[in-house]
Amino acid sequence: MGILDRFWPRQAKATTPALPKRTAAVIQATRNFESALADRLTASWKTPSLTANEEIAAALEPTRNRARDLAKNNEFAKKYLSMLVANVVGPNGFALQSLAAEPDGKPDRLARALIESAYADWGRRGTCEVTGRLSWVDVQSIVAETWARDGEALIVQLKGKAAGNKYGYALRLVEVERLPVQYSRDLKNGAQIIMGVEVDDLNRTVAYWLNLGKLGTAASHGAQATLTRVDAADVIHVYKPYRPEQVRGMPGLHAVIRGLQMLDGYEEAAIVAARIGASKMGFFTTPDGEAPPGDDKDEQGNTITDADPGSFQTLPRGVQFQDWNPDYPHANYQAFMKTRLRSIASGMGVTYHGLANDLEGVNFSSIRSGTLEERDAWMVLQNWLAEAFLRPVFAEWLKWSLTSGAITYASGAALPIEKIDKFGAHTWLGRRWGWVDPLKDIEASRLAIKTGIASPQMIAAQNGVDVEDVLAAIGDFEAMVESAGVTLVDFSDNQQTTTAPASEPAPEPAPPATA
Predict the structure, then answer these.
(1) pTM above the 0.70 mark?
(2) Structural contact between residues 63 and 251, judged by C-beta atoms closer than 8 angstroms
(3) Are 245 and 203 in contact (CB under 8 A)?
(4) Is the model's pLDDT at 222 over the cut of 50?
């Protein structure tokens, strides 16, 4: 005891009574995120702390194989893939719009026309793709569908003489199995190979280790495939990452694969039950379990009983008829299918009525709201695909086309490669959609231009066309009308219009007569 304690005794420190465990847990829960609580309701929720690449390495191959199986055998998975290709790529693919301009900003229309014409020629079947079986639109469709089904798409770029065309550039589409998922290595200076993708210490892709031999041959003989290191500049790897350091892609159907497979089994069971219920009406029973007399038997000894419409028969003594009327599929079948398909459509990012082809109970307002939201999602995918695939292809095509002198003026002079930065300016126009009431859309566009909140270029881009192409087409049409000497009639207001110039001015009206 100290000296001061003799005069001012120390007070005993107050102790807090221990709280019951349940009360303490409740207090702790209020101080934390409920999503992180560990209780009896979340005990079976397994959430391992894995990196994106660790998750993908363990799940990519089985998920990809299951997605491919659904794409072959499930009608809704097949419909989703067809919807994606039809809305993202469209019937004519993405349209290239060259933006080559002079240093003062004035458009170089001649260079634009030459580049767009040469690119369209390169995109023909037999030129852009090395096998000669695909056109540029076909390549876009396959890449989009492969990404949605497999999670990624691989394209090897052939340059120079290896391309086999005058532009010096071609594409080779390869299966993603050529990039092995299980091939991972640690290299020097912090570099590493992750699932066949070689990255440096900053996670920048350096190269791809591809199996360029025959697929399946090595596996069938039990030998390890020979991998070839291909520089990243020669490969286009199309995938949509969902985490920052992810180097491989996952199928877009991964969130609905299990639901689709279970729904497929449920639907199959319902169809089989309905078929059996429609085929079998009942059973004949006897006290000793023997077959009723008088019935025929097949070669395997099974009893055959014929039932003729409109006829009645007398059963033998001791034989009773027990009917069997399974009430399946019952009334809840349709409601259950709709509920599940709505959840699956949400996981796919599409509308229910589009996926299920069900327009029952859909009005104009609801279908417009859902369709507009879905089209916004399609345009997001269009912009992503343009950046991930189309722009790299155009950049390499332009460089090698200018190098080989494949883009020429009418005089035969080639576009100079020194101006590649000028010629490389471009944009991509994806497909756009019409509406059930186009008159209102046209009136809205005209009003937007009139009030100054939009330009004709913006309206043309929203419709997926180049305004310069529109003007050129109008000019060609007017030239054809003038050369043909025809008169166009607008029956809506009984007015006649013609592009031919008037020969003489109209005479002035005579003055009114005096009374």
Answers:
(1) yes
(2) yes
(3) yes
(4) no
